[in-house]
Design goal:
This protein is mainly alpha-helical. It is built from 41 helices and eight strands.
């Protein structure tokens, strides 16, 4: 047992005695390795301990996250302070197996002589009652039944504070839980300069520990990507990073990165002077697993089947009462499942968060999940659990097959995006099982999601794979696979192959039972013919699809689908130069979508159904103000439900409108961003798609009025695509274009949403608001909630709330109404 009295030499040389007030600084355990990073966490925990209303702080988190080291670092700065003038004691509880022995262990650590025939709790209380002291109880998770002892001490010792480290929260009165997070991770795909990489806590820890194992190790531009990826794969867990870094004497970072596919077997061989649970990550996690009761272990190992997290509904389907017939493993009652989940959260084996669809979502760190998966395989339950997992996510995908035709489509798409990793895992499992029938069903169900959300290469690969199996599927299913593949390759600009695939699909859909597939075949073939300039046949296909609708589905579905066809006919009309007819078709389509309250469909009609939209009509009419507003609305909606094609088209539309207004610098930036976005998604560049239509005289005249037919990139020699006004400064345009290419899509969208055709008038901004705060204030005045502000500006809800609080502080107001009145009175909006 590693304990140290605060004001006395080691106990093997001097008899134990009580500490005296005002004595020397405590002799706390001193690690032999340096403490790296964690400045924010150290400051936060110190602040908690410094609050007069806080007596008990629990540092909670999974094994290996660094709770003990953080506690040791915090108390280094507290020793000798007046708040703890009477002593700081560190008590290691890991060796204690019986909660009833916790009090006597603390007594021994403090050097207190218990009174004969009295329980040790009395001696503790007598010793600590009037002392300004800090007690650190390390590794409390396996003696949680001793929690009442902690509260009893605090109730009778008003100047005492206790700092606990535990993988499970104590759940006692007055407890303030500080969840120790893993070290912050960097994105290996977007590496920072080497100087900034060295400031990352996770990278610094790896480098320091690696240099201890291999004296010549240093972080370089060559090995930095591998080091960042190693830290990411190890979930930022300090113990895992230290164990991996210790391997640098035998491996290069790149070799280590590749070998981390099976991380737990590699992360062993820690220092021999450490407890077994700290010598390998497997032992660290096993320590927590062994503390679980049978129901908790049952749930823990079954949750390993989820990749990237899960919802309560998904968890219930896997381990709840809806078990399969013949499943030998008895299903837990739902109440038992929820109790077990709560315990896993308390013990830091599961983490809770808010999902993309606004639902509660739960995750495991991948290092912990790998251990749980090994337990699942060893239990013999793996095949049954994987089957339940696959059936649940197949059902989810099939519910969302035509999300873009449904009023609840936004929610369905968000659920699929949140569970993308689980859907991929289900696909991979079906492939391994050679269950080609369910594999075909899942691939067909996911094709719409892949096309909307921009996972085009993934969707194309799976569709080609199932089509290549040559199975004798029913004609409608194979036809739908061909149609989806045709749509995806058309989205990537391969019109010729798309046409061949759609022709093949229509040969399979001649019977009465094939009408839904035939409807989609005509619709998508109409898109392709539009791209190829065959306007007559494109219009005929859309008209035929429109005529089929009354026999196909419910009223809401038919209304959405009819809106889609009207938008398609609007594209044909605009390509023919009949702007009035185009406006009529698009307006009818928009009215239908807004009546349904369906945001994704609205964004289609405004900017991209399937190529042009109502915003393009306004631009063709020369109404640039209306065009910009429509493109921006489409962009806002498309970012909300993550439809990549509409996002790209709306972003390009904003750029084209700014170009038509002569704002060439901002247009060049957004064209650069749009081109970069399209290069990443595989969807053709906005202006390339529009130029392929061969737009007629009315459209050209609208652009030629400001010289928009002159290609910016022609003026720049190596950039032959975009249309912008004659440029006064081509080199400056090149710089702006290059700047735009480096923008993230969130940055580009925010810039496009803030774009104006004319400079805004000067305002009385004596309040000192930043540009972002003025944007938030405008939305605040419009009555937007924090969540709506976050969605409009592509920021988190927490960030939006922070901006609102800062605005209140700067304006010296306390309510939205007061902020609105101030903004209007002073011309801030």
């Amino acid at each position: 047992m590693s304990t140290a009295p605060a004001h006395a030499p080691p106990r093997d040389t001097v008899p134990p005695r009580p500490a005296e007030p005002g004595g020397a600084a405590p002799a706390l355990p001193r690690p032999l390795t340096s403490f790296v990073g964690r400045a924010r966490e150290v400051t936060a925990v110190r602040a908690l301990l410094g609050r007069p209303d806080v007596q008990l702080v629990t540092l909670s988190g999974p094994g290996g996250v660094g709770k003990t080291r953080l506690a040791q670092r915090v108390v280094e700065d507290l020793a000798g302070l007046p708040d703890f003038a009477d002593g700081i004691w560190f008590v290691a509880l890991a060796p204690v197996r019986d909660p009833a022995l916790v009090a006597s262990t603390i007594v021994q650590a403090l050097g207190v002589r218990p009174v004969a025939d009295q329980p040790p709790e009395h001696a503790l209380t007598d010793f600590l009652r009037d002392r300004q002291a800090l007690l650190i109880l390390d590794n409390f998770e396996h003696v949680l039944e001793a929690g009442p002892l902690v509260t009893a001490l605090l109730m009778t010792c008003p100047s005492l504070k206790i700092l606990v480290t535990s993988r499970a929260v104590l759940r006692v009165s007055g407890e303030h839980v500080f969840v120790v997070p893993p070290m912050a991770l960097l994105d290996a795909d977007h590496l920072l300069p080497i100087e900034l990489l060295r400031e990352s806590d996770a990278v610094r820890l790896f480098v320091v520990r690696a240099a201890a194992s291999a004296a010549d190790f240093a972080l370089t531009l060559d090995n930095a990507p591998a080091v960042v990826e190693i830290c990411r794969r190890l979930d930022g867990l300090p113990l895992a990073i230290e164990l991996a870094a210790a391997r640098m004497g035998a491996f290069t970072p790149e070799t280590l990165r590749r070998r981390l596919e099976e991380r737990l077997s590699l992360l062993a061989g820690g220092p021999r002077d450490q407890p077994p649970r700290l010598r390998s990550m497997r032992d660290a996690i096993a320590w927590s697993y062994d503390l679980l009761d049978p129901d908790e272990q049952h749930l823990f190992r079954r949750l390993a089947v989820f990749v990237g997290g899960w919802t309560l509904d998904a968890m219930e389907a896997i381990v709840g009462p809806r078990g399969d017939e013949g499943d030998e493993e008895p299903a837990l009652l739902l109440s038992s499942v929820l109790d077990a989940l709560a315990s896993l959260i308390d013990r830091s084996l599961v983490q809770q968060a808010l999902g993309l669809a606004g639902e509660s979502r739960f995750t495991m760190l991948e290092t912990i999940r790998e251990f749980a998966l090994a337990q699942l395989v060893a239990s013999g339950e793996a095949e049954a659990v994987h089957r339940r997992h696959e059936r649940f996510f197949l059902a989810l995908a099939e519910r969302a097959t035509l999300a873009n035709y449904r009023p609840d489509g936004l929610q369905l798409l968000a659920c699929q995006e949140a569970d993308h990793a689980n859907l991929r895992a289900a696909l991979a499992w079906l492939e391994r099982q050679r269950d080609l029938d369910d594999l075909s069903r899942l691939v067909t169900a996911l094709a719409n999601f892949w096309s909307l959300e921009g996972h085009l290469h993934e969707g194309q690969a799976w569709l080609e794979h199932v089509l290549a199996q040559g199975r004798d599927w029913t004609s409608p299913r194979r036809a739908m696979e061909l149609i989806w593949l045709g749509l995806i390759v058309w989205l990537q600009g391969d019109d010729a192959r798309a046409l061949d695939l759609l022709d093949e699909s229509l040969t399979l859909t001649s019977g009465d039972g094939d009408s839904v597939a035939r409807f989609h075949g005509f619709t998508v073939r109409g898109y392709v013919l539009l791209s190829l300039g065959d306007l007559a046949h494109s219009a005929a296909h859309q008209a035929e699809a429109l005529a089929m609708l009354p026999s196909l589905g419910d009223e809401a579905w038919m209304s959405c689908a009819a809106s889609n066809q009207l938008g398609n006919l609007g594209n044909v009309a605009l390509a023919r130069g009949d702007i009035a007819a185009a406006e009529s078709y698009f307006t009818q389509a928009l009215d239908r979508q807004r009546a349904l309250g369906y945001a994704p469909g609205t964004s289609h009609v405004l900017a991209s159904q399937p190529i042009l939209g109502l915003a393009d009509v306004a631009r063709a009419q020369g109404d640039l103000t209306t065009a910009l507003a429509r493109y921006q609305e489409a962009l806002r909606l498309s970012r909300e439900f993550r439809h990549v094609k509409v996002t790209g088209d709306a972003l390009g539309g904003v750029a084209a409108t700014l170009a038509a207004a002569g704002r060439w610098e901002q247009a060049a930036r957004l064209f650069g961003a749009a081109e970069s976005f399209h290069a990443k998604t595989g969807i053709p560049f906005y202006l390339d798609r529009q130029r392929a239509l061969g737009l007629p005289e009315p459209w050209r005249r609208a652009d030629e009025s400001c010289g928009c037919e002159q290609p910016l990139r022609d003026a720049l020699a190596d950039q032959p695509h975009a249309m912008l006004p004659a440029l006064p400064d081509p080199p400056a345009a090149a710089r702006r274009w290059s700047e735009g290419q480096s923008l993230s899509i969130d940055e580009a969208a925010a810039e496009a949403m803030a774009a104006r055709l004319h400079d805004a008038p000067a305002v009385d901004d004596h309040a000192g608001l930043t540009p972002r705060e003025r944007e938030v204030l405008r939305l605040l005045v419009d009555g937007k909630t924090d969540q709506e502000i976050a969605a409009a500006l592509f920021i988190s809800r927490r960030t939006a709330g922070t901006h609102v609080r800062h605005i209140y502080d700067k304006l010296d107001v306390t309510s939205r109404a007061a902020a609105t009145a101030f903004a209007v009175r002073h011309g801030l909006v």
